[in-house]
Amino acid sequence: MIEIRVGQLAEKLGVHRNTVTNWIRSGKLKATATVGKRYRIEKGVLLQFCREQGIPEAVLQTVAVFNTFPSSGRHPSSPSLLPTPRMNVR
Fold first, then answer.
1. Order of all β-strands in the sheet with 2-5
2. Over the stretch 25-37, which tens digit does the pLDDT of each residue have?
3. Which of 17, 42, 56, 89 is disulfide-compatible with 10, CB 3.0–4.6 A?
């Protein structure tokens, strides 16, 4: 999975940010909105989409390593989703 802002992706791909937004809104590029104006995109989906758009392979490699995280869907720097013990406060 890759998590990236529209402007960052547009810059990497050499297109306008509105182009990336239109791709996402139209469903041409499958992406899931997350917090902080970021989108989560499956790496394979992004690479295939870029190939279909004729984006050079050298550019694809720079995008493929950008801000990747495990496919568990949880960013490595996010806090654990496990419950914390309750404190008894009187």
1. 2-5, 38-41, 32-33
2. 999 999 999 998 8
3. 17
One-character DSSP codes across 26-84: HTSS--EE-STTEEEE-HHHHHHHHHHTT--HHHHHHHHTTTB--TTS--TTSPP-SPP
Tell me how long the chain is: 90
**Which tokens hold the place of 73?**
């869907």
Kindly give the interhelix angle for 6-13 and 17-26, rounded to the nearest 10 degrees. Answer: 110
Proportion of the chain above pLDDT 90, given as a percent: 49
Report yes or no: 72 and 18 within 8 Å, Cβ to Cβ.
no
